[in-house]
Design a protein that fits this description.
With 483 residues, the protein is α/β, with parallel strands linked by helices. The chain has 14 helices and 16 strands. It has helices at residues 18-21, 24-31, 35-45, 52-67, 69-101, 107-137, 143-156, 159-174, 223-256, 258-277, 300-309, 338-352, 387-401, 419-435, and strands at 12-16, 47-49, 181-183, 189-191, 195-202, 205-212, 286-287, 292-297, 318-322, 327-331, 362-365, 370-375, 406-411, 439-444, 460-465, 474-476. An eight-stranded mixed beta sheet has the order 2-1-12-13-14-10-15-16, sandwiched between helices. A hairpin with a 2-residue loop joins strand 5 (195-202) and strand 6 (205-212). The model is unreliable at 177-198 and 209-217 (pLDDT under 50).
């Protein structure tokens, strides 16, 4: 299957737990009322891109759609037509399968089936031509869409397509079985050279009998010829439809793949319009060599939720700057915005590696092969012992999976035990991740500015929340405050 992405260079990483924990699935649900589209975009965001070139490739295509809505609207409309076209084609194939089971296939059966194939094929070619006409008036700027445009134009203007369209019209008009051979390498040029047509009647029905050229072109309808005619027509019909199916699959593959990818771009366009309605600025992030740096980051989940539910409340932004060697600890009391801040960074990391824009003024993110989240047992259903035991099991599973190219997002774990024991356990976990060079971002109320973090003091950046009265600002804690 073709793709707008650079398939030879494209590799994918994984997201563990984060789609649900960070409420990305809720964003998808609010953007799409269609469950099928919602599941598709979740699947796409679950497989993050692992190379800068492909991330920028997808960003450029999305920009094309955001800033040239004619291309976007036309392709969205044609995607609906393509899906209907393939659905009709699939129904034709099903009908053909039923015909194969019949011991006596009538001329009417063959005519009906071939006409249906002809109609479907013509629809596909008409879609080709409409897309080509649209691209002539609206030139895309991204490499992916330029390549797509060139492929469509090459097919539409080829001699083979034009001849094939004439042949399809003959099939639709006559409903008769034409036998021909086709060379795919020559762009589908039909060559009618193996058979000649002999017309006759059988049981009151007109039929077309195919005979080799070296035989006479007129046949009397005796019993043997009647049996032969059935066999020859069946054979001719099946070979003809087999060729049509090969051609349809080849042509559909050239443009039909975009129906699978357009769900991503539709998600991006709809999210962009939601942010626009809320007057939230966006930027396309840049891929960094290890640092995480964001200016005026606002939570995409809250933006989408407030829009969906009609809230006009302001969503406050925050900044964060982490070097390639820093991890991040966010402290503060409950209900001061710690989880919102954590969720924002996690969503931004996944959106960056999916090719989406972010709700901030500027952003730099590194490429991670895994984004893993561990959220408090209070926020998950569990049948495994108590919350503390469940969280310990979750952390053990994460430790077994992660490496230095992973980002681990931890939210308010170890709340179910004594505060001191929970704090010590959390410090031990964070120290271990630091020792194996895994970048982590953690929020907790178990640790305060005066907590002795041992060696962690030298490797982490600590931020503190301020609450609603100070517009949920996240302020960096200076080292002297830890003494």
């Amino acid at each position: 299957m073709r793709s707008l992405l650079n398939l030879e260079n494209t590799k994918y990483g994984s997201v563990v737990n984060s789609i649900h924990d960070l409420q990305i699935d809720s964003i998808a649900r609010m953007v799409f009322s269609d469950t099928s589209k919602m599941n598709k975009i979740i699947s796409i965001l679950d497989n993050i891109l692992l190379d800068k070139e492909t991330i920028e490739y997808r960003q450029s295509i999305l920009k094309d759609f955001l800033y040239n809505r004619t291309i976007y609207v036309t392709l969205m409309k044609e995607c609906v037509n393509l899906e209907k076209c393939y659905s009709d084609y699939d129904a034709n194939r099903s009908y053909r399968s039923k015909l194969k089971l019949k011991s006596d296939i009538s001329i009417a059966d063959i005519s009906t089936s071939l006409r249906d194939y002809g109609y479907t094929f013509r629809k596909l070619i008409e879609i080709y031509m409409r897309i080509d006409a649209m691209f002539k008036d609206n030139i895309p700027s991204s490499k992916g869409l330029k390549s797509y445009t060139a492929n469509v134009k090459k097919r539409v203007t080829s001699e083979g397509i034009l001849e094939l369209l004439e042949l399809i019209e003959q099939i639709i008009t006559s409903g008769q079985a034409y036998s021909y051979t086709i060379t795919l390498d020559d762009y589908l040029v039909p060559v009618k050279e193996k058979y000649i047509i002999c017309n006759g009647k059988y049981e009151g029905e007109k039929f077309t009998l195919f005979k080799k050229k070296n035989n006479a072109n007129k046949v009397d309808l005796n019993d043997k010829i009647i049996d032969d005619s059935k066999r020859i027509m069946n054979d001719s019909y099946n070979r003809s439809v087999s060729i049509i199916e090969q051609l349809f699959e080849a042509l559909f593959d050239e443009i039909g793949f975009i129906t699978k990818e357009m769900v991503f771009f539709e998600f991006g366009v709809k999210l962009y319009d939601i942010f626009g309605e809320r007057k939230e600025d966006i930027c396309f992030p840049e891929v960094s060599d290890g640092k995480i740096s964001i200016t005026n980051a606002r939570d995409p989940y809250l933006i989408t939720r407030y829009f969906t539910e009609g809230y006009s409340d302001k969503i406050y932004g925050n900044d964060i700057n982490l070097s390639s060697s820093n991890s991040c600890l966010v402290i503060g009391s409950n209900n001061t915005g710690k989880t919102v801040f954590l969720r924002t960074i996690g969503i931004f990391q996944i959106f960056t590696q999916s090719g989406l824009f972010l709700s901030c003024d500027k952003a730099y993110f590194p490429i991670k092969n895994q984004v893993v989240s561990i959220f408090s047992g209070e926020e998950k259903d569990t049948n495994v012992g108590g919350r503390f035991e469940k969280e310990a099991i979750d952390i053990k599973e994460v430790i077994d999976k992660v490496d230095e190219n992973s980002l681990v997002i931890i939210n308010e774990i170890f709340q179910s035990t004594f505060a001191l024991d929970g704090m010590n356990a959390l410090v031990d976990v964070l120290s271990y991740f630091t020792d194996i060079n895994v970048k982590w971002i953690t929020v907790t109320h178990l640790i305060s500015k005066n907590t002795n973090l041992g060696n962690l003091d030298e490797t982490i950046k600590m931020y503190e929340t301020t609450g609603k009265e100070n517009r949920y600002k996240i302020l960096e804690v200076n080292k002297w405050m830890l003494e």
